[in-house]
Amino acid sequence: MTDTTDPAVRSAWSHLILLWLAGVGLRLTILAVPPVLPLIHRDLGLSEKAIGVLSALPALLLGLAAIPGSLTIARFGAHQSCLLGLTVVALAGAARGIGPSVPMLFGMTLLMGAGAAIMQPTLPSLVGEWFPRRAGFATAVYANGLLIAEAVSPTVTLPLVLPWVGGSWELSFVAWSAPVALTALLFAITPRHRPGARPSQSSRWWPDWRDPLSWQLGLMLGGTGGAYFWANTFIPDYLHAIGKPELVSAALGAVNIGQLPASALVLAFARPLTSNRAVFITSPLLGLIGLAGLLSPSPVVIVAAAGWLGFCCGMQLILSLALPPLLAPADDVHRLSAGMFAIGYFVSFLMQPLGGAIWDATGVPATAFVAGALSIVLVLGAALTLPRVGPLRTARAV
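The structure corresponding to this sequence follows.
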């Protein structure tokens, strides 16, 4: 049995809990927006294009900060950078409802996205500092927190949080920011880890924009994120537009909960899945089926299709994140990853405003699906041109 009285064991458990909570904080406040978009739309009179921009701002910041994020860690350290990011996310996330005001909503959403962008690169760094010999397990811990946050926030906002705060979407933002603030407090009172000497790494940090692989992986990640964020952005307003508002909570929950079995599947079969090009091609094709199912008049089919789309997005996300260490030399993984995140999140950002603009221009709710379909096509195109991931490389990474 593990001796839980051992200080080293207690420290390991403490760090695992912090990693999991940080993963939760990275998505919890962002995914609190989709369930209340119809209320924001009603109260502030936003167009569908503006709604798309509002939902996409965090993704844009995640992309813009992908490259300078590593410089922030070098200056302040991973622990302090994560604390800074958590604090900004908590304060800005809660302040989005002040007014309510359109400038405040957009300004604080932008600041909240900046906080999440600071946090994003700190988590792999903390894994390396705290669990250098169990990096895979520790990474799975914070990824689990991220996925659970993506599932819980959209699912319980309408049935639980909104009634609790009197139906106020403004106060719902405060409620979802509170756990992030608590996580920041825990980081603040946790002693900083003092790692021993580590081998020197490559001083190169700027991505190679001439490398086709950066663009292939970036478009794959961007299309995946574009489809996922598109679903969370437009499913609520689309269901309201076709007279099925009672399906919003179930459909959003299905999109986000659908990612969890995909995560379990990849963890169980990492080696055969990441080394098989057919998986990367089949996943977006199956995602198109889920997207088409959302157009069904049947409530059961709509919810099932939302879950299937979430499953495919979750599968493709995890597979995409696994590719840089499989396709790049060890001292170049960080550069390839930075380029992939920068391109990917920028593409993800573009998809929501595109869908809203098409809906506004045509006045037909179903035309917003064009942006969702385009996102999935980008994934498929990138997968078709992806270099083969050899079994020896996969075995080394796993």
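The domain at 1-192 is CATH 1.20.1250.20 (Growth Hormone; Chain: A;).
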